[in-house]
DNA sequence: ACAGGAATTTATGTCGACATAATTGAATGA
DNA sequence: TCATTCAATTATGTCGACATAAATTCCTGT
């Protein structure tokens, strides 16, 4: 099942998949789901958007790093027009900033914004989980149980990446069960913005422990259709996750944005 | 004060302001605030986006109507590239749909989506109002009181447009007081999507009555820093507003999307 | 008269080019 | 040595052109 998942990721990026890690391919798929939501067929624009977006999420491109359209056009062997559009898609999701007449760059996530995002997510996700607990079908339950099992496996194996992506999938399934596409789109977008930090926060064993326990509790609240409990659990978990991030930021655990003189573009006149 | 407001709206649209109503100029400013948030200087793209966005909100362009990029490029005497970008900005706010390889068109708002939007808004706005009630400064209070007075004046004068825009400004000021830019952006975007319908719902005198009373109550909750009350009031008001819209949709009060054969483009070779 | 399909028209996605703004690098002076 | 100013470089915003996909029209057969 994960296999098919990874196979299908290839068509949404431009570079050969062999060089990519599994985590990166997961990232591509998540980005695709959110940023290329309406693009049913992989187009040039969506490929670029997915790949660059995944690179940002996977911290291949760092906070504040320049995303010059000419540089990207060279790299993807296309003109600047589709690159520009791809960057606009990523800006819409908050991964990229495009100041007028200035070079686009990877958006910088300061703690103030993270705080805001987690506050909004806590409230919205609480409501969504509440609805999901009420509306969930047997199919929803089955899917969620399976994802919980995947989560548990990853947790036992201490596999950070696997845990992270299973986590994302669990929340994804949960938001689907609530049958509110608008809420889902907003939550997805907010998730995307903070995915860069998830690895940091989940790298703490105590955090992973709490997170795992939380998911078990949440699952049972949903099974028992205890909407208020699901709401409170989600909010509490978000508060805790935020506290961890606050700590990490305070300790300087988040690499500060590059004072990006852009890296010299070594004009590789190789292709001739 | 409103005078300066209207004067400044001119620079964000492309056509002469003399032909525009006051309501339309208010619409332009609201669109600008949301869609051209980061564009500090009026650029070609933002002008087009603001004007077309305002036309959608003001129902000058109807649900489902085609927005061909060549047609718009002709009208604004520019090339398709900036038009395309302007349409992308409007799509990001949900006012426009751009299917791949098909003509962009004004987004269609069905009742299911309206329901979703109001649910999300109720929850998020409740939380924001709650924060605003807690955090509000004396300046916030003064500004809100003044807007409440404007609301009351418009209400007494039975001036639908004035009431509508004062309403928008009141909520805008309220979301500012909560000091959560992320939440504000989301709420603004959701508001924009439903602004087209506001006139419908507020055209009912009973609805206006309820709305006015609601604002008075809300204002006092904020003055007294009664966060839970502010939360509940907002939610309740949104539920009521939604109920009115459900009724209007059920009665067929919302013009159904044009089966838009696009209007024949009478090639006006006038400019020679 | 009408439905269905081929031919024509029109729009989109992408490209390379240009003018102009921003950025880098060099040169000057304290 | 460092800050400041000016020239050179590089990137952006916009444009018109082209290939190709949709939409529309026209034509044919029933």
From TrEMBL, chains A, B:
SUPFAM superfamilies: GntR ligand-binding domain-like (SSF48008), Winged helix' DNA-binding domain (SSF46785). The keyword Transmembrane helix does not apply. SMART domains: FCD, HTH_GNTR. Residues 42-109 form the HTH gntR-type domain. Transmembrane segments: none annotated. GO terms for molecular function: DNA binding; DNA-binding transcription factor activity. InterPro entries: GntR_C, TF_FadR/GntR_C, Tscrpt_reg_HTH_GntR, WH-like_DNA-bd_sf, WH_DNA-bd_sf. Gene3D superfamilies: GntR ligand-binding domain-like, Winged helix-like DNA-binding domain superfamily/Winged helix DNA-binding domain. Pfam families: FCD (PF07729), GntR (PF00392). Keywords: DNA-binding, Transcription, Transcription regulation. This is GntR family transcriptional regulator. The lineage of its organism: Bacteria, Pseudomonadati, Pseudomonadota, Alphaproteobacteria, Hyphomicrobiales.
